[in-house]
Amino acid sequence: MKKPMVNPGAVQLLHSNSIEHLFFGCLDQNPKIQRELFDRLSSKMLSLSLRYIKETAAAEDVLIIAFRKVFDRIGQFRQQGSFEGWIRRIVVNECLMYLEKQRNLYREIGLERIYPEANQASPSDNLDWEDLTKMLQYLPKGYRKVFELFALEGLSHEEIARKLEISENTSKSQLCRARIQLQRLLHFRTLKN
Length: 193
What we know:
This protein has helices at about 10, 20-25, 30-50, 55-70, 85-115, 130-135, 140-150, 155-165, 170-190. Helix content is about 70%, strand content about 0%. The radius of gyration is 27 Å and the shape is elongated. The chain is mainly alpha-helical.
């Protein structure tokens, strides 16, 4: 005798008026049932998303991504616990992943705001090539390489990341730090003269 594909205890859920009965329609990838599930849970899950993500448009985007994952991974639901709880967990995980991406983006963008002196022009901006190459020797090797590839060779952060086998974020942060150190070196050079 073949073992049933679904938990026999869950079969009775088909007759109930709960969210769990929609599981089987979603498992069969029935678009009408998927739409019904979305319609029944979207407002509740949006409220959940808004607890994590304060911007409504972003929370709605995260909700859509979460439901897409629900429908793509419906076969992974083991029918242990509630179906709605499983969906809730996916929504929360998507919210947390979104927030982590935002934190990384702010770190990336924020470096220049934290160190505004790296972007300010100074009288020593008219530096000749020889002085610049001498000053580059004082930079740590990683900073110097990224600065040379970006400022002197004109490569993008994506190209630098591939070439040096580092992440784009590492390339951006090293460039920012190289600029800061060069600004400090220029400042000390100006004080000496």
